[in-house]
Design brief:
Elements (H helix, E strand, L loop, with lengths): L2 H14 L7 H8 L1 H15 L3 E10 L2 E10 L6 E15 L2 E14 L7 H11 L4 H4 L1 E15 L2 E13 L6 E10 L2 E13 L9 E10 L5 H5 L7 E9 L8 E12 H4 L11 E12 L2 E15 L15 E12 L2 E15 H5 L10 E12 L2 E12 L6 E4 H10 L17 E14 L2 E5 L8 E7 L2 E7 L5 E2 L1 H12 L3 H8 L5
Parallel strand pairs: 4-5
Antiparallel strand pairs: 1-2, 2-3, 3-4, 5-6, 6-7, 7-8, 8-9, 9-10, 10-11, 11-12, 12-13, 13-14, 14-15, 15-16, 16-17, 17-19, 18-19, 19-20, 19-21, 20-23, 21-22
Helix pairs in contact: 1-3, 1-4
Length: 509
């Protein structure tokens, strides 16, 4: 039986015992220390936990009040429950007994890491054999409460909360509350809380759902869950905390709108991360487990996505530049890309950095990239259309060393050097006037097309003896990207083996 439910049940049993018809003597007995100690002992015995009652008094002929009620864990490690006033009402409707319990100004803890398995067993054992139906308890009303949920790295504190717990559903209690403070942040429109407590599923809360208006992202408690400090962004939507059967730690499922978030703050625990950029997204569903986002489905926009974090995966010493992307579909689960479809632009990539892995030498110029379409399905590139233009330094031609150009042409394009231009006659550094390519991919098969020249099939035009010469042309063959993708994924999985095993193993894959 759930701890909060046990407390309510205990109070119900104690307050409901016997008739509430008053006499002067009975009223004096209610207010006596002897009676208070007697009931306090009964409450402690019921829970087998330290319990305190400050005062008991009669209110009306059909109600009784307990003041300053507190229930602790053994050794007083933590409070299970406390309230300033608990009032029991006995009423009848159509000849049937209908009872209600009002709880005023208190704290209700739905779970805490300070709770031990033995504590849960005690709470379960103390409630065996009791039935809400026998008590005719139809409703519990909470006013001015703080609702706390602390499990693992998750910590939610909903302050200034009021509402009801419906007991008419038989085997479970369902809470409907509104809170006007979330983790210390005032929330003018209020946060709706829906909690479900089913004793058949164990002692921890089975489900806690928060429906929030637009609030600072930091107020949601996502920062401690990700083991980072959240300083940017806003969120509006639903946050659901669940305890799956057999799981040691709870999960968080999120849906809603995430606005102007700092991508580095959200991806600090992700393998390869953190990634730098600004992130706004509509989240259909996202799963957070053990401080890692394991599932994500939605759509959104990333601005100023820095490429620096991707350099190790591309076997580059460094990588400058950034991109702005429109993500039509994001469907990622446990490190696998189920579907990713996007378009966008990239800028600020230095040609020198991008070509460094294909040979020695230097190159000048910056890349401008337009992604017309990129569609990844099941870790494979279904289709892509990407235009790349290399922009020479302003006011002068771009340059590329001969050795670097030869290495690039051979390794990437499988290009055969034209016999009309002996390699040893080329200068050590070539000046190019135009440099660009269009990349088309269909089912992992890449075609590299030219962008200029008389036939539009030229990739690189150099200056030779004062004249433009189309040196590198597009080739008719395709390049199979599957080995490169497999190698890329292997590098991801090897980035942090211990972390990746935990990440991929979150659902037993």
């Amino acid at each position: 039986m759930q701890p909060h439910r046990k407390i309510i049940l205990a109070l119900t049993l104690l307050l409901a015992g016997g008739s509430l018809s008053f006499t002067a003597a009975y009223g004096l007995r209610l207010r006596s220390d002897a009676y208070r100690h007697e009931v306090e002992a009964e409450l402690s015995s019921f829970f087998n936990l330290p319990s305190e009652i400050g005062r008991i008094r009669g209110r009306t002929f059909s109600s009784r009040a307990f003041e300053d009620v507190t229930v602790h864990l053994p050794d007083r490690r933590d409070r299970v429950f406390s309230c300033k006033t608990a009032i029991w009402h006995e009423t009848t409707e159509d000849g049937n007994e209908v009872n209600e319990l009002d709880l005023l100004d208190g704290v209700l803890i739905l779970g805490s890491d300070r709770w031990q398995r033995g504590d849960y067993r005690q709470l379960i054992k103390s409630g065996l054999g009791h039935d809400f139906g026998e008590l005719h308890l139809s409703k519990v009303t909470l006013s001015r409460f703080e609702i706390g949920f602390e499990r693992g790295s998750f910590s939610i504190r909903c302050g200034r909360a009021s509402g009801t717990i419906d007991m008419d559903s038989g085997d479970e209690g369902v809470a409907y509350l509104n809170a006007y403070e979330l983790n210390g942040f005032p929330i003018g429109e209020g946060v709706r809380i829906h909690a479900r407590f089913c004793p058949k599923n164990g002692v921890e809360v089975s489900e806690l759902t928060l429906s929030v208006p637009e609030v600072p992202l930091a107020s949601t408690g996502i920062g401690p869950a990700l083991k980072t400090e959240i300083t940017h962004g806003r969120f509006a939507g639903r946050i659901q905390y669940v305890n799956p059967k057999g799981a040691e730690k709870p999960e968080v499922w999120i849906s809603g709108d995430l606005i102007d978030a700092d991508l580095a703050e959200l991806t600090c625990g992700v393998p390869m991360g953190p990634f730098e950029g600004e992130f706004s997204v509509n989240v259909d569903r996202a799963r957070l487990s053990d401080s890692v986002i394991t599932h994500f489905y939605g759509r959104g926009v990333i601005n100023n996505l820095s490429f620096s974090s991707f350099a190790p995966l591309l076997k580059l010493q460094s990588l400058s530049g950034s991109a702005s992307l429109n993500l039509d579909v994001i469907d990622i689960a446990l490190g696998h890309v189920n579907r990713l479809r996007l378009d966008g632009r990239a800028r600020g990539l230095a040609l020198q950095e991008l070509l460094q892995r294909w040979g020695q030498g230097s190159a000048s110029g910056m890349l401008a990239i337009r992604i017309n379409n990129l569609d990844v399905v099941d870790d494979n590139i279904k289709s892509a259309d990407i235009e790349i233009t290399v922009l020479p330094p302003e006011g002068r031609p771009g340059t590329i060393d001969r050795t670097l150009l030869l290495g690039l042409a051979k390794q990437v394009l499988d290009f055969t050097w034209p016999s009309a231009i002996p390699q040893n006659l080329l200068p050590k550094q070539l000046a190019y006037t135009q440099f660009g390519a269009r990349l088309l991919v269909r089912d992992n098969q890449l075609r590299i097309l030219g962008t200029h020249g008389n036939r539009g099939d030229t990739i690189l035009t150099i200056k030779v003896f004062g004249r433009d010469f189309g040196l590198v042309k597009e080739q008719p063959d395709t390049i199979d990207l599957k080995p490169y993708l497999s190698s890329f994924l292997e590098r991801i999985r090897g980035y942090d083996p211990d972390r990746m095993r935990l990440w991929w193993g979150a659902t037993g894959l």
